[in-house]
Amino acid sequence: MTSKDSNYPNEGDSGKQITCLLVGAGSRGHNYSSYAIEFPKEFKVVGVVEPREFFRNREKKEHSIKDDLVFEDWPEAAARDKFADCVIIATPDRKHKDPAVAFAKKGYHILLEKPMAVMEDDCREIVSVCKQNRVLLAVCHVLRYASWAQKIKEIIESGEIGEVVNIQHTEPVGFWHFAHSYVRGNWHNEATSSNALLAKCCHDVDLIAYWMSPHKCIRVSSFGHLSHFRKEDKPDGAGSRCLDCGIETRCPYSAKKLYIDRVKLGLTGWPVSVVAEVPDIESVTDALRHGPYGCCVYQSDNDVMSHQVTNFQFENGATCSLSMVAFTSRLCAREVKVYGTKGEIICDASHSPKVEVFDFLTQKSRQINCSDDVAPGRLKGHGNADYLLMQAFVQALRTGRQDLVVTGAEDTLASHLLVFAAEKARKENRVVDIQANCTF
Length: 440
Fold this sequence. Notes:
CATH topology of the largest domain: Dihydrodipicolinate Reductase, domain 2
Structural class: alpha/beta
Number of domains: 3
Strand order of the largest sheet: 14-13-12-11-7-10-9-8-15
Largest sheet: 9 strands, mixed
Strand content: 15-25%
Helix content: 25-40%
Order of helices and strands: EHHEHEHEHEHEHEHHEHHHEEEEEEHHE
CATH class of the largest domain: Alpha Beta
Number of strands: 15
Radius of gyration: 22 Å
Shape: globular
CATH superfamily of the largest domain: Dihydrodipicolinate Reductase, domain 2
């Protein structure tokens, strides 16, 4: 699909202000929509869909949205004639497909939070409908836009380390982050959200596919387990809620430590902002006393993997492994090692990401600092990649340059299919062969 056979603005419209409908005004949608606050000449949020009154009104006020473009449910907005250039869809994982399909049919360009959907058929339908209606689909695999990830891709493509034969990629989730999001939080149960590999590590599977491109993955295996966060691991004397627990001071997963102590320090952003609409001591305490974030981590109905290793073999013989681990001090600070025939790359993707390249011939290494502070306001997430994603999406619509979006429909579908294959391999305890057309 080229810009001239789509409904993109033409090249001459690069000064156009892109208008947007926000569907889902939680943490991710709220952050992405702030691009309009930082760059009002480029981007404007003109409508919002959000079932929760507090978050709906927050966006209405922040973006001065007219009353008739404020909705509680997305079908009401989709029933209207098209009134914006694009839509940001940041609803819960299992509620991505239906609005994506509906708004694509209306001709809206789409920025879709990851994962694209939680079922293979739904992902395929989203891509198909977007193609049929000639709309741009950009999926929020934001890490492809991160400077360190781009630098690794650049070095591989330069041939500096020869042919890649192996990639080792680790995602250290963080002990308290896993407890917050995957034991107490929205992604704790596969039946109501999705599996941990899709919810947390579709980013990482996507990066491996990105770095290995144009080579295709041909087989996948995966092993995982839910450790520690189980009823049988509950310590003697522990209560059902942290605020009423006799051993709370000795528990690293204490909700009191994680949320109330943060509020006392004035740290009211994520994760505290997820717990209570008004992140003050009274509201957070009440939420911990009555809501899911105050429950003991050892008696939830969580069932997603706390650690998982996934192995990939590519058509050129290269092998790659992804390790996701909950029990780490580092919080989502990826560790990457890329081994080539002429050298290797080591990347520490922490808050100050660095890429080190070692040359086998000269036996010398060089270090590249990939830190930058280009992102304004709330767009600093994922090492500024949230901002870089939004910038690429908006500029693609303003200029008609689809190439600015590196997380488009086909690439995202291909990497999602690898995640589905990995989960099939884990659950069926076998190696899954990937066909040329990415089906299995």
